[in-house]
Automatic annotation (TrEMBL), chain A:
GO CC annotation: plasma membrane
Origin: domain of life: Bacteria
Localization per record: Cell membrane
Protein name per the record: NitT/TauT family transport system permease protein
UniProtKB/TrEMBL annotation, chain B:
Residues in ABC transmembrane type-1 domain copies: 57-235
Organism: Geodermatophilus africanus
InterPro entries, per database record: MetI-like (IPR000515), MetI-like_sf (IPR035906)
Protein name per its UniProtKB record: NitT/TauT family transport system permease protein
Membrane topology of this protein: Multi-pass membrane protein
Length: 302, 253
C-alpha cells in the first residue's frame, strides 16, 4: 500500500525532512506510482563535508538565490537568441497587471479550467463506478481490463483528432475529451484500491454476514479512497493537457487557444501569464487533494 | 486454478469479439463518421503498403528516441548530483518539482515562435516531457540510500569514488529504471504533441490529414497503431521494472 509516498526520511545534512509532495511525482502518463521507500528509514547520501556539520546558509536563501539565477539565465538565454519572440521575465511581470485586468483573460481561463473541473468530476464519477466493479467482480475485470489498460497507456492527445471528427470543433468536444482522459486513471486506481483489501477485513465482514453493498461501499470504496486521490491528481494533469490539445487543434476558445493566438501575434509575455496561471491551477488542485487526504485520512501517511 | 485461467482467457477473447461486433454494428449505422472494423483494417493495410505509415513511424520514432536518450543522459546524472550535495538539493528541489508541474503542451507555441519547428524543436518538446520523471527518480533513489549501507561502506574505509560505484549508483538503478519507464510514457506524449502542434509531420501529419478529411478509418488505424506501440513499450518496460524491483527489495530488506 504505497500510494506514492515517496522519499520519506530525513536529510542527514540539514535534518530537514525531504519529502516529495504526494502526487507531484507523477507525469501525465506514468502508469505506476514512484518507488515506495524501503523499510528502514532512508537517509540522504551524506557527503564528507556535510557530516562535519559545516555551517550552511538557510534553505530559503538558497532557494531564493536559485530562483534569481533561473530568471537571470532565462533572460540571458532570451537575449542570446536575439529573438523578439521570446517571453522575458521582466516582460512577463510587467504584463501581469494588464492581463489580469482584462475580462477576456478570465473568461478564457474559466473556459479551460472549468472544463477541466467538470470533465474530471464526470470522468471520476464514471471511473469510480467501473473501477469499483472491476475491483470486486472478476468477470467485469477480465472483460474490461485490456481496453482500460490500452486506453490508459495511449496518450490521449492522439485521440483528439478522432474526437474532432466525431464531435466537431466545439467546447463539448473538449469536455468529452477531458472527461475521458480523467476517467481512465480513476478506473485504474480505483480498481487497484478496491481489489487490494486486506484479507482480514473480508473475513470479518463475512463472519458478521455483511451484505454485498456493505463490502462494496463500506470496505472496498473506503479502501480505494487514497488510491482515488492519487488517481485524481494524475487525472487533473492529464485532463489539462487534453483540454489544451483540443483548444489548439479545434480552435475552441480558452486559455490554451489564447496562448496560441498571442504567441502568433508576438505577445509572448502576455501569453506566458496564461502558462503560469494554468501551472498554478494544477499545483493548487493537487495540493488541495493532498491536504484533504492528510486531513481526512491521516493514517495514510503524510 | 487452471479452470480460472481458461475462464479468464475466454472472457478476454469474448471482450475482443464483442468490441469488433459492436464496432461493426455502430459503424453500419453512422455512415462516414465511424469507419467499421473491416474498413479500418483495410485502410491500415493500405497505409502500410503504400509506405506512408512506416515512413511516419520512422520519422516520429527518431524524434522519440533522440528525446528519450537525451533525457536519460541528462536526467540521471543531474538527479544524482542534485541528491548528492545537500546544498544543491535544498536549492533546486522546489524548482524541479515546479518545472515538472508546467503542462509542456502550453510551452509548444513558445517553442514554435522562438526556435521553430525543425527536428531540434521537436526533440526539445520530448525532452521536456521525459526528463523530469527520470531526474526525480534518480534524485529519490540516491537520496534514499539507507544510512546503514553508507555507514558500513565508511567503516571499511571506502573512498568517495568507491562509495559511488558500489553503493549509491547500484542502489539507484531500480529507481532509475522506474523513472525511465515513466520517461518513456512522457516521451510518447511529447512526441505526439510535437508531431501534432509544431508542424505536423510523421504520425501527427497522418492524424491531422485524416481528421481534416473526415477519414475516420485512417485516424482509427493510426490511433490503433500508436496504441499498440504504447502498450508494447510500457509492457516491456514494466517487465524490466519488475525485475529490478525485486533487486530493490533484496537490497533494502
Amino acid at each position: 500500500m504505497t500510494t506514492r509516498r515517496t522519499g520519506t526520511g530525513e536529510s542527514a545534512a540539514g535534518g530537514r525532512p525531504v519529502s516529495a509532495p504526494a502526487g507531484q511525482g507523477s507525469t501525465a502518463t506514468e502508469a505506476v506510482p514512484l518507488p515506495g521507500e524501503p523499510s528502514s528509514a532512508p537517509q540522504a547520501v551524506p557527503s564528507g563535508r556535510a557530516r562535519r556539520e559545516r555551517r550552511r546558509p538557510p534553505n530559503w536563501l538558497l532557494r531564493l538565490l536559485t530562483g534569481v539565477l533561473i530568471l537571470v539565465l532565462w533572460d540571458l538565454g532570451a537575449r542570446m537568441l536575439e529573438s523578439p519572440f521570446i517571453a522575458r521575465p521582466l516582460g512577463v511581470a510587467q504584463a501581469v497587471p494588464e492581463v489580469f485586468a482584462s475580462e477576456r483573460f478570465w473568461q478564457d481561463a474559466w473556459a479551460t479550467i472549468g472544463s477541466v473541473v467538470y470533465g474530471v468530476l464526470i470522468g471520476a464519477a464514471a471511473g469510480l463506478v467501473l473501477g469499483l466493479a472491476m475491483g470486486r467482480i472478476k468477470l467485469v475485470r477480465w472483460f474490461f481490463t485490456s481496453y482500460v489498460s490500452a486506453l490508459y497507456t495511449l496518450p490521449m492527445v492522439a485521440v483528439v483528432p478522432l474526437m474532432t471528427i466525431w464531435l466537431g470543433y466545439t467546447p463539448e468536444t473538449r469536455l468529452v475529451a477531458v472527461a475521458l482522459s480523467a476517467f481512465l486513471p480513476i478506473v485504474v486506481t480505483t480498481a487497484d484500491g478496491s481489489r487490494a483489501i486486506p484479507k482480514e477485513y473480508l473475513d470479518v465482514a463475512r463472519t458478521f454476514r455483511a451484505r454485498v453493498h456493505n463490502i462494496w461501499f463500506g470496505i472496498a470504496l473506503r479502501n480505494a479512497i487514497p488510491y482515488l486521490i492519487a488517481g485524481l491528481q494524475l487525472a487533473i494533469a492529464r485532463a489539462l493537457v487534453t483540454a489544451v490539445a483540443v483548444e489548439f487543434l479545434a480552435g475552441v476558445p480558452g486559455l490554451g487557444y489564447s496562448i496560441l493566438q498571442q504567441t502568433r501575434s508576438f505577445q509572448q509575455n502576455e501569453a506566458f501569464v496564461g502558462v503560469i496561471v494554468l501551472t498554478l491551477f494544477v499545483v493548487a488542485a493537487r495540493a488541495l487533494l493532498t491536504v484533504a487526504r492528510r486531513r481526512f485520512l491521516p493514517w495514510y501517511g503524510r | 486454478m487452471a479452470t480460472e485461467r481458461w475462464a479468464r482467457w475466454g472472457v478476454y477473447a469474448l471482450s475482443l469479439v464483442v468490441l469488433a461486433v459492436v464496432w461493426q454494428i455502430a459503424a453500419a449505422g453512422s455512415g462516414l463518421l465511424l469507419a467499421s472494423f473491416t474498413e479500418t483494417m483495410a485502410r491500415l493495410g493500405e497505409l502500410i503498403s503504400n509506405g506512408e505509415l512506416p515512413e511516419a513511424l520512422l520519422s516520429s520514432g527518431r524524434i522519440f528516441l533522440t528525446g528519450l536518450v537525451l533525457s536519460i543522459l541528462l536526467g540521471l546524472p543531474l538527479g544524482l548530483v542534485f541528491a548528492r550535495f545537500p546544498l544543491v538539493t535544498a536549492a533546486v528541489e522546489t524548482y524541479v518539482y515546479g518545472l515538472y508541474a508546467i503542462p509542456v503542451i502550453t510551452l509548444v507555441p513558445f517553442i514554435l515562435a522562438g526556435i521553430g519547428f525543425d527536428f531540434r524543436a521537436k526533440v526539445l518538446v520530448v525532452v521536456l516531457t521525459a526528463i523530469f520523471p527520470i531526474l526525480i527518480s534518480a534524485m529519490e533513489g540516491a537520496r534514499s540510500v539507507p544510512g546503514r549501507l553508507l555507514d558500513v561502506a565508511h567503516s571499511y574505509g571506502s573512498t568517495e569514488r568507491q562509495l559511488w560505484a558500489d553503493v549509491v549508483i547500484p542502489y539507484t538503478v531500480p529507481y532509475a529504471v522506474t523513472g525511465i519507464k515513466q520517461g518513456i510514457a512522457g516521451a510518447l506524449v511529447g512526441t505526439i504533441i510535437a508531431e501534432l502542434f509544431l508542424n505536423a509531420t510523421g504520425v501527427g501529419d497522418l492524424l491531422i490529414r485524416a481528421s481534416t478529411n473526415f477519414d475516420s478509418a485512417g485516424a482509427l488505424a493510426v490511433t490503433l497503431v500508436i496504441s499498440v506501440i504504447a502498450v508494447s513499450l510500457m509492457g516491456v518496460s514494466g517487465v524490466v521494472e519488475r525485475r529490478f524491483a525485486g533487486w530493490r527489495e533484496g537490497l533494502s530488506g
